[in-house]
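In the design runs reported in the main text, the only information available to the sequence generator was the tokenized backbone. The following block is the verbatim input for one such run; it is reproduced so that readers can re-run the procedure and compare outputs position by position.
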């Protein structure tokens, strides 16, 4: 196997112990790094070996981080644009110089294939750079107040002001990228942020926070990080003094956060069961390639990986033949190998759940449906009954479900009969079908002739229905994390 990567020696103080990677011991709270008394093991999902001992926070430390963020908020709001841009580009350049080490660290803490971790680091760099560029575009407009006679002689303009302290909570599957999509727009907007990473994957985010604080362009407390359990999260989101909560994770957790945080503004990037529609006129080979490429990347642990495929009935058998013929190309194994496409899921509980959903679905298993070592063999299901979790819910594993539809109209209705709506793909040669899909499909994004998992990090990204509210992408997240302030002047 090329490019071998070995877990580092577990560190008793929680500091980085990987080749080329280092950050201070403890947690970045306030102006420094606070030592903690408890640690949690970060485990390499491929073989269960311990990667590191990560510092473990608690509710008391979370409360302290909020207090520190509130104290620094006026300084952050007044921070000049050049300082915010310098911080973001400084972290970008420092990460770019260490990208191979970030990639290795992500493989170890997430268990995701190396190819996907390389993509994650590349996209994180784009996110940091794009947020830095958006600092220069944070401005308002004048308003003609004399549209009413009472406004004659008045000068009016509005500006965008920071919303206040931001709490960012991220998922385990893309920990570095998800953190960047919380942190970079918040700092660009002039907001201090407290980040809570997923318990299983805190390491790369700790390093990113250290790089940002090390630029010297920000007050150190502008970006803090606290690890921990549900009580830590509750302490962060239920504080009425914060300005916004930005969360990426499951729909159930997102709904609970929205209830507990109310009336604080919440931005929710939640789950999905992303669909791909294959029209009868589609390039079937390209569609089959897309299902394989889009269904099994990150071992299926992506909210916009292909889960549901709806094929027009006349081409069903041909499409299934092309799809199953390609399954031998999906390499299962050690995520440290650049050839691997599917590796073990984040933990044994997730693996057991996915396999249980498959076996209890009543569907026909064309390929997979079993363990391959600690991983799940890439799976294709057909004849899925109504009400099956593998179709209705987000499976978050290497499982693709295929159904036939009598017409495109039926296919669109099938896609829309879901509580989710994040990204949907349509494969077709017809421009009319493409525009009909954009018009009819209930989703935050409609992708034509590409995988639903396509996301450029500068575009608006988010869902409808139970897939969330608000939009990410630095420009759009900055809008979410700022408020308009109207100025009315009578000279």
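Verbatim output:
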């Amino acid at each position: 196997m090329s490019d071998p990567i070995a877990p580092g020696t577990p560190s008793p103080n929680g500091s980085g112990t990987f080749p080329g990677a280092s950050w201070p011991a403890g947690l970045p709270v306030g102006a420094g790094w606070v030592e903690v008394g408890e640690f949690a093991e970060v485990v390499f999902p491929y073989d269960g070996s311990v990667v590191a001992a990560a510092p473990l926070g608690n509710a008391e430390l979370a409360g302290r981080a909020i207090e520190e963020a509130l104290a620094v908020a006026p300084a952050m709001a007044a921070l000049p644009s050049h300082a915010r841009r310098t911080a973001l580009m400084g972290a970008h350049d420092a990460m770019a110089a260490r990208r191979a080490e970030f990639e290795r660290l992500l493989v170890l803490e997430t268990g995701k294939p190396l190819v996907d971790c390389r993509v994650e680091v590349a996209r994180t760099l784009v996110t940091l750079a794009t947020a830095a560029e958006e600092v220069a575009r944070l401005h308002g407009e004048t308003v003609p107040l004399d549209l009413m006679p009472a406004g004659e002689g008045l000068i009016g303009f509005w500006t965008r002001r920071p919303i206040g302290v931001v709490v960012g909570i991220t998922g385990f599957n893309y920990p570095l990228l998800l953190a960047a999509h919380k942190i970079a727009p918040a700092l660009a907007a002039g907001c201090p942020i407290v980040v809570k990473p997923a318990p299983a994957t805190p390491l790369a985010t700790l390093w990113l926070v250290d790089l940002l604080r090390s630029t010297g362009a920000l007050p150190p407390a502008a970006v803090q990080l606290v690890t921990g359990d549900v009580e830590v999260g509750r302490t962060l989101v239920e504080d009425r003094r914060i300005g916004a909560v930005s969360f990426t994770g499951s729909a159930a957790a997102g709904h609970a956060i929205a209830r507990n945080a109310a009336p604080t503004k919440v931005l929710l990037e939640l789950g999905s069961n992303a669909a791909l529609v294959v029209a009868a006129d589609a390039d079937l080979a390209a569609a089959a390639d897309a299902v394989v490429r889009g269904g099994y990347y990150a071992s299926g642990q992506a909210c916009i990986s292909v889960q549901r495929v709806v094929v027009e009935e006349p081409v069903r058998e041909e499409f299934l033949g092309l799809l199953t013929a390609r399954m031998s190309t999906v390499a299962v194994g050690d995520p440290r190998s650049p050839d691997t496409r599917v590796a073990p899921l984040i933990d044994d509980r997730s693996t057991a759940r996915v396999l249980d959903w498959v076996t209890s679905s009543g569907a026909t298993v064309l390929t997979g449906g079993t363990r391959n070592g600690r991983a799940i063999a890439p799976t294709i299901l057909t004849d899925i009954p109504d009400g099956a979790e593998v179709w209705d819910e987000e499976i978050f594993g290497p499982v693709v479900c295929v159904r036939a539809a009598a017409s495109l109209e039926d296919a669109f209705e099938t896609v829309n009969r879901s509580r989710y709506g994040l990204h949907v793909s349509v494969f077709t040669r017809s421009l009319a079908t493409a525009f009909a899909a954009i018009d009819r499909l209930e989703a935050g994004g409609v992708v034509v002739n590409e995988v639903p998992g396509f996301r450029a990090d500068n575009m608006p990204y988010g869902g409808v229905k139970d897939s969330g509210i608000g939009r990410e992408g630095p420009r759009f997240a900055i809008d979410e994390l700022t408020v308009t302030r109207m100025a009315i002047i009578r000279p």
